[in-house]
Amino acid sequence: MAANPTLQDAPVARSIRTQESPAAPGALVRALARFARWRRVREAREQLAQLDDRMLRDIGFDPEEVREDVAKSFWTPCTLARVARGDR
After folding, report:
1. Do 43 and 53 touch, CB atoms closer than 8 A?
2. Other residues' Cβ atoms within 10 Å of the Cβ of residue 43
3. Rounded Cα distance, 41 and 37, in Å
């Protein structure tokens, strides 16, 4: 009588098992965190760009520094300390 095949003997299970990567979940989490950070930076820069010089000085920002930071790409880290920390 033939031996009962197990799941480990199945070719599908073997192919799935070899495609798994222990680093994959961590890489996905890091990628999602990076996209979330980029989105927060982009939104903060858009909000700061809408404020005039008087309003920026009232909340403690140098208008020239804000203009320089707003001109940067979303993936470039924010150099304005309060925005980078997420203070509101």
Report:
1. no
2. 12
3. 6
The more confident residue out of 41 and 22 is: 41
Residue 23 CB neighbour total at 10 angstroms: 8
Distance in angstroms (rounded) separating the CA atoms of residues 36 and 79: 17
Longest Cα separation, the chain = 88
CB 56 within 8 A of CB 48: yes
Q: What is the pLDDT of residues 35-74, one digit of tens each?
A: 999 999 899 899 999 999 999 999 999 999 999 999 998 8
Cβ atoms 72, 65 nearer than 8 A: no
pLDDT at 86: 60
Cα–Cα distance between 56 and 65 in angstroms, integer?
A: 10
In whole angstroms, give the CA distance from residue 61 to residue 18.
53
Supply 10's token pair: 């199945």
